[in-house]
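quick q for whoever's on today - can somebody do inverse folding on this one?? i tried earlier but teh output was garbage lol. tokens:
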């Protein structure tokens, strides 16, 4: 988890950098729709890698999803700690039960 915490800090620092010098800043400059689109693209690429890619390709796409998810969380000012706390809350709860509790 240290890696994700460091990545979150780096993304936060680069958010306001010069968009011509920082990929993160360039995404932020384009706004939430572009950030969401990029996250979606990476999700599709990861799903394809699950089905037909090598393990190395899947690892790369998984890293891309995590990166772009943290960019999206940062853009919405949602700390990664909130996501981790939600995962902790769900630990030990059946996925079926957890999903049912959200629709109730």
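ok took a stab at it. sequence:
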């Amino acid at each position: 988890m240290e890696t994700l915490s460091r990545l979150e800090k780096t993304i936060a620092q680069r958010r306001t950098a010069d968009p011509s010098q920082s990929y993160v800043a360039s995404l932020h400059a384009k706004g939430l729709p572009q950030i969401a689109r990029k996250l979606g693209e990476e999700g599709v690429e990861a799903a394809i890698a699950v089905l037909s890619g090598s393990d190395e390709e899947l690892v790369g796409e998984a890293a891309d999803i995590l990166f772009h998810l943290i960019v999206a969380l940062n853009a919405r000012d949602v700390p990664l700690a909130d996501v981790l706390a939600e995962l902790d809350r769900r630990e030990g709860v059946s996925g079926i039960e957890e999903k049912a509790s959200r629709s109730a």
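fwiw The longest helix spans residues 32-52. also The chain has a mean pLDDT of 93. so keep that in mind when u check it
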